[in-house]
Hints:
By secondary structure, the chain is α+β, with helices and mostly antiparallel strands. The protein folds into two domains: 3-113, PH-domain like, CATH 2.30.29; 126-155. It is built from five helices and seven strands, in the order E-E-E-H-E-E-E-H-E-H-H-H. It has helices at 25-31, 77-82, 95-113, 126-138, 144-155, and strands spanning 3-6, 10-14, 18-23, 35-40, 46-50, 58-63, 87-90. Strand 1 (3-6) and strand 2 (10-14) form a beta hairpin.
Amino acid sequence: MDMHAKGTGGEIHFDGQYVTIRHAGFLGRLSVGKGEKRLHVSQISAVQWKPAGRVVNGFIQFTIPGGNEVRSEFGKQTFDAAGDENSMVFTRQQAPAFEALRAAIDTAIAQQHAPQPAAPAAGASLADELTKLGALVQQGLMSPAEFEQAKARLLG
């Protein structure tokens, strides 16, 4: 996966694991300063989204645990986001690329928090572990897709 979205003061790149925010150009230097920030999806605790309208720009903003977030006043959210190093402002025309980027990042964050099946116990056979996983699917405690992922992990 390799996604890219260009905003008003830079761009965001997502490779499936890392979100890279590059502030560039006149607006990037004026608001945040020219530079690059790279975040692993496991570092992102929330994604704030404001869609672009006919008159105002939208933005995407990444929340990081321990970060110093400032609550914006009504009507100043986009202006404040333009000065945040974890945000990117975009126009209505640029919005579709950012919507796709947001969906991919949300999916990657959810996968980071998905429960992982336990490793096989010492002495347990591969057949026993597959039988246990099959029973979880039959009980509705595991989806068929999760079963396939767990089976692939067990089989190496």
